[in-house]
Amino acid sequence: MNPRICLILFAITSILSCKKTPEIENAGLTGKWKLAAVLEGYLDGGGFQWTPVSNENSHTLTFSEEKNYVRKENRSGNFSEGKGAYTFQDMDMEIKSG
To answer: What gap in Å lies between CA 10 and CA 6, rounded to an integer?
Structure first.
């Protein structure tokens, strides 16, 4: 087969086989965030693997558009909550607990 035809067929096949991935819209920081996993072993020299967080140790952070946040933690049945404010300056985030 002619090398030119092979190159053209390869180019057409390559172009047709590409798929455009859908864009993920950046929803920003506001909303409720839940801790889903932790990197085990960082402090104690362990296996450096992600481990899912159980419901008994769940943590959530809720950020509002008014630049406030609420932190809720459940550590084996010991519940705690904290509130505060946050600001952005350039690419830095400053958290002020209250």
So the answer is: 6
Q: How far apart are CA 81 and CA 65, in angstroms?
A: 19
Segments making up each domain of the chain, as ranges: 28-97
N-to-C CA span, the chain:
75
Condensed to tens digits (0 to 9), the pLDDT of residues 6-21 reads: 667 766 666 666 666 6
Q: 0.70 cut: is pTM over it?
A: no
Task: Please report the sign of the dihedral spanned by the C-alpha atoms of residue 28, residue 92, residue 81, residue 68.
Answer: negative
Which residue in the block uniquely carries the two structure tokens 């798929």? 19
Instruction: Tell me how far the alpha carbon of residue 36 is from its chain's centroid.
Output: 10
In order of 1, 9, 15, 34, 77, the CA distances from 70 in angstroms are 68, 58, 49, 12, 19
Tokens of 53: 């967080």
The percent of the chain in helix, strand and coil, each rounded to the nearest 5, is 20, 45, 40
